[in-house]
Specification:
By secondary structure, this protein is α/β, with parallel strands linked by helices. It is built from twelve helices and nine strands.
Length: 321
């Protein structure tokens, strides 16, 4: 059994971006991995080059899952995970690149050390065009990820999540069966918002989220659903959020975490929202206020060598190269 399954989810993917993502995955060292490409019923797809591309880089453990029609991100992720055999799962998409050659090795050892079912690390935001690559922001996301450090309490993590300090799903590293369980939990309510919805259910069930203080992925701004600024995707993601919160409230009727999440996002009257939390959940309200006052925004740092690696991936990785 591989230590890690890299599941690349695609839909009408840009071939050059897919090649870069696969190249960064194939470069991983000191870790036993496989690559799964899960395609969500693309209307334009040609994976005939993948076999030669990966084998030229020494990768023979890979599979392509071609779903017959478009189902959305959540079900596409599930199809890829079901076809995988790794102990842990790293989900990614074309344009997002593993930060360096030892990310998965280090992530795996971190997860095993802490017996963690789900972890995340730092995304380094970038954009690329004909003139080259550049960093678009250096602030950590969430602003202070140490709120989820291994010694943080479950309550602190739940309140941090309630306060909109959400990790970036592109940096998640999860135990395979755990990831499958919580994605399947939201599969009928959520189409695209796979990361925060599944994480909310896991936190409600008492599972901690572990922060690994390491740069994990070069995260391409503007190319994916979550970084898109279009009104269409804003509406679709808002619908997903409403649906999973309604289900969370239904399945966890006695959970303070579920109740406050419901109140925060689905109670439109600000006064009623504050009064409800003040009367029903004063500890959470106090804790959230304390966190917001004491939070120390962090910055992501990267070296010139790291930037050269990113530049290399963008200038030397093509379908025929």
């Amino acid at each position: 059994m591989p230590q890690v399954s890299i599941v690349v989810v695609t839909y009408n993917a840009n071939t050059e971006k897919l090649c870069r993502t696969l190249h960064a995955a194939a470069m991983q060292k000191d870790v036993d991995f496989e690559i799964i490409i899960a395609d969500d019923g693309s209307t334009q797809k040609d994976f005939s080059f993948v076999k030669d591309f990966l084998q030229a880089r020494g990768v023979t453990a890979f599979r392509i899952v071609e779903n017959p029609y478009n189902q959305g991100t959540v079900k596409n992720c599930i199809s890829g995970i079901r076809s995988s055999t790794g102990e842990y799962i790293f989900l990614t998409s074309p344009g997002d690149l593993l930060y360096d050659e030892y990310v998965l090795r280090d992530f795996y050892h971190f997860a095993k050390k802490h017996h963690a079912h789900m972890c995340f690390g730092n995304p380094v935001h970038y954009s690329a065009d004909a003139s080259g690559v550049r960093l678009t922001k250096q602030e950590c996301v969430p602003a202070d990820p140490k709120l989820y450090s291994p010694d943080a309490s479950l309550l602190q993590e739940q309140v941090s999540f309630l306060s909109n300090f959400w990790p970036v799903g592109a940096t998640f590293f999860r135990q395979r069966e755990f990831a499958l369980k919580y994605l399947e939990t939201v599969a009928e309510q959520v189409v695209y918002l796979e990361d925060n919805s599944s994480t909310a259910f896991a936190l409600a069930d008492g599972h901690k989220l572990y922060y690994y203080d390491r740069n994990i992925v070069w995260y391409e701004d503007g190319s994916g659903i979550s970084t898109s600024s279009s009104d269409k995707w804003t509406r679709l993601l808002a619908k997903d959020a409403k649906n999973f919160i309604l289900k969370l409230k239904q399945t966890h009727p006695r959970s303070s975490f579920a109740d406050v999440l419901f109140c925060n996002y689905l109670e439109t009257n600000r006064f009623r929202r504050i009064v409800h939390k003040l009367l029903q959940h004063p500890l959470i309200l106090f804790y959230a206020s304390s966190i917001k006052k004491t939070i120390k925004p962090q910055e992501v740092c990267c070296s010139e060598t790291d930037l050269e690696y990113l530049q290399y991936l963008h200038t030397h990785t093509t379908q025929g190269n």
